[in-house]
Automatic annotation (TrEMBL):
The lineage of its organism: Eukaryota, Metazoa, Chordata, Craniata, Vertebrata. Its main location: cytoplasm. It holds the Pfam family PA26. It catalyses: a hydroperoxide + L-cysteinyl-[protein] = S-hydroxy-L-cysteinyl-[protein] + an alcohol. It is found in: Cytoplasm. The gene is Sesn1. One of its GO terms (cellular component) is cytoplasm. This is SESN1 protein.
Length: 516
């Protein structure tokens, strides 16, 4: 406040501090705004608000939040309000705040599912802050490299701040070519894991482990691979749930006063719209009557019942099961959005990685053939888990817990129906994602996928998993229209974990082959 008083005397005519002082004070005020809205401790919220009011009384303009709530896709009133959470959620919020120094928007959306959030936060804390093979600044830089593959400025911004906070060299942030050669060498693996993990071979692993003075140890490489896959899949969650910028980050606040209509022209040009516009029906989408949506739920439940009856009556032959997998894998190549919409404008993060043209490519396009990855030959449970645990103790256990919670999580509800066994539907979503990566379960009938997942749902799944930066609110709105937002977030947890496990399986298989 004393600093603000000093600046107030020389404040610019528009009520903003003079440019030289503006940055430092602006950052401090944005941080206070974040604490006043997002701190789980009421006394800190009140004190932060009081300091902001004091600054405002000195004639200095204070920031206000842009956007409405932690997600652009979910109305703020339907998310958990800080200060109104139950005891379980409060404990999670307090732990998250103590660990990260913030209560981020990802946490505020994930808290729809507290059991999963607890496991997620525990794993992320271990990867970033506990004893491990990699130094702290390397961990955050690898997070930046991974998030930047999908132009996820939300995660890049958070980890740029964390990277600098733990003493990272600011020069590295000017581009991957400014980072140590050892990190540059990781760029190729980052690209393949994010977009075409099926191309990873033991030769790629050998190059990283054998490059003289810049070589990686096996333990360091496992740590790096887990971080890369964690942040690729977290980018999927960020875009899949429409996570808003953090209040104290770029795009999360403004110093401009609200105009009469609740937003001013500069906000519109920057893509920030009024609350009504954000949550209104997406332009061009056809309003659906609630009767139609209810029919959608009933039809899905009826299909689940019929499939269960067919399962009980007859079992397809191994040859037929293999054919159905290949058909589903081939068809998944041609699932794409009819809208080629621009993704949300982001700060330029391309400088953090090379070869921006390298993106997701389907297996069968361009005459490429990728052999099917049979889970019976290499699985997380029998192979990947023990390899990770051996080289990076406890992490295999943490990941295994998180995979199981996401896969088995259920409240036995579907939209307005209770006491529903949703295991068939959850398995179809998980196996469809793995099928897109060429991963096959011999004991699963892939014919079920087409019965349970309609086209709009498949478009959403494929976009969020393969090219998350292209996800739009229209896609989010168009699948499962009668379901709760918490159920759509639940879908995103399945997408996150199935994607992470698929990437890990390819990387860990290559490492195992190198070791043998």
């Amino acid at each position: 406040l004393r600093r603000a008083e000093g600046i107030a005397s020389g404040a610019a005519a528009d009520g903003l501090p003079a440019p030289a002082a503006r940055d430092g004070l602006g950052e401090a005020l944005a941080r206070l705004l974040m604490l006043s809205k997002r701190c789980p401790f009421p006394d800190v919220r009140e004190k932060s608000e009081a300091v902001l009011s004091g600054v405002q009384e000195l004639g200095i303009r204070i920031p206000r939040p842009l956007g409405h709530g932690p997600s652009r896709f979910i109305p703020e009133k339907e998310t958990v309000q800080v200060g109104k959470e139950d005891a379980t959620m409060h404990t999670l919020f307090a732990e998250s705040f103590a660990t990260l120094g913030r209560l981020d928007n990802v946490t505020l959306v994930m808290v729809f599912h507290p059991q999963y959030l607890e496991s997620f936060l525990k794993t992320q804390h271990y990867l970033l802050q506990m004893d491990g093979p990699l130094p702290l600044h390397y961990r955050h830089y690898i997070g930046i490299m991974a998030a930047a593959r999908h132009q996820c400025s939300y995660l890049v911004n958070l980890h740029v701040n964390d990277f600098l906070h733990v003493g990272g060299d600011p020069k590295w942030l000017n581009g991957l070519e400014n980072a140590p050669q050892k990190l540059q060498n990781l760029g190729e693996l980052n690209k393949m894991l994010a977009h075409r993990p099926w191309l990873i071979t033991k030769e790629h692993i050998e190059q990283l482990l054998k490059t003289e003075e810049n070589s990686w140890s096996l333990a360091e490489l496992i740590h790096a691979v887990v971080l890369l896959t964690h942040y690729h899949s977290l980018a999927s969650f960020t875009f899949g749930c429409g996570i808003s910028p953090e209040i104290d980050c770029e795009g999360g606040h403004t110093f401009r006063p609200p105009s009469v209509s609740n937003y001013c022209i500069c906000d519109i040009t920057n893509g920030y719209h009024g609350v009504d516009e954000i949550h209104a029906s997406p332009a061009g989408s056809i309003p659906v009557s609630s009767t139609e949506s209810v029919c959608e739920v009933e039809a899905l439940m009826e299909k689940m019942k019929q499939l269960q009856e067919c399962r009980d009556e007859e079992e397809a032959s191994q040859e037929e099961m293999a054919t159905r997998f290949e058909r589903e894998k081939r068809e998944s190549m041609f699932v794409c959005s009819s809208e080629d919409e621009e993704s949300a404008a982001t700060r330029d993060v391309s400088r953090h990685f090379e070869d921006t043209s390298y993106g997701y490519k389907d297996f069968s396009r361009h005459g490429m053939h990728v052999p099917t990855f049979r889970v019976q030959d290499y699985s997380w449970e029998d192979h990947g888990y023990s390899l990770v645990n051996r080289l990076y103790p406890d992490v295999g256990q943490l990941l295994d817990e998180k995979f199981h919670i996401a896969y088995n999580l259920t409240y036995n509800t579907m939209a307005m129906h209770k006491d529903v066994d949703t295991s068939m539907l959850r398995r179809a979503i998980w196996n469809y994602i793995h099928c897109m990566f060429g991963i096959r379960y011999d004991d699963y009938d892939y014919g079920e996928i087409n019965q349970l997942l309609d086209r709009s749902f498949k478009v959403y799944i494929k976009t969020v998993v393969c090219t998350p930066e292209k996800t739009t609110k229209r896609m989010y709105d168009s699948f499962w229209r009668q379901f709760e937002h918490s159920e759509k977030v639940h879908v995103n947890l399945l997408l996150v974990e199935a994607r992470m496990q698929a990437e890990l399986l390819y990387a860990l298989r290559a490492i195992t082959r190198y070791m043998t």
